[in-house]
Amino acid sequence: MTPLPDGNPRLPEHINNPPQNALLEFGSLVAMVGLVMAGLTLLLVLLAGLLAPHIPFRWEAAAVSDLPLEAPWPQADAALNQLADELMASMDPPPAIPVQVRLLDMQTPNAFATLGGHVLITRGLLETITSENGLAMVLAHEIGHIQHRDPIAVLSRSAVIGLLWAAVTGGDNFAMQTLFGQSGGLTALSFNRDMERRADQYALDMLVAHYGHAQGADEFFLSIVADHETGSWQTLFQSHPLTRERIKALQQALPAQGEEELRPLAPALRELTRQDSPEEH
Predict the structure, then answer these.
(1) 77-89, pLDDT tens digit by residue?
(2) Containing H/E element for 118?
């Protein structure tokens, strides 16, 4: 039989005040929570990406049916849509999702795909290219995003991440939202780059199907590199693969094709550029 202690036992010192540094404990806790949340974010982002393409396109189109877009150059819009239709018709089988292209009165060279099958191209982009082939590469790239349902996938992932961090932080703690939100954004960033690479390959296939070659595919990206070296592109395309990486990948499809004649821009588009006529390549 174990004898009973004689009197009350003496408690160890610091039992309620452990010797570890409180800041280190807090840092460890934050790091652990960050790792758990990053893993949960990755899982939910993967699920959102897998489920988003199965959302009926008619739902997506209905959500943006009243998208307010001005049409300052209807003839240029018609030329862009005609080129998009020709590119899609060259594929076998043709893409299932219809695409509508609109020219924006913006000087920043850019193009992007949005919900509902909309492709927006800025006037500034037209001033960086001199051939229909270069424009077709950009347009086919955005068509690829739409056919792969990338806009709805990005929206779904962003919504999942936003809801998750709002639930964790209570929606009113700006500092914690910033800390954890940045972790979530970095987790999703690589998926955006994968989408860009896939859209580049889709565009190359579309150019070869339409023109019989991929010459001119790197025209827009070469202009980006030239401007980037002057520092004017430091904040653009940060979610995209490195521009030089994309140029290298695109040019790998060119050597076997030889030098092919490039088509000029449509008159309605050429009138909006600084060039009187496309340069001969």
Answers:
(1) 999 999 999 999 9
(2) strand 118-122
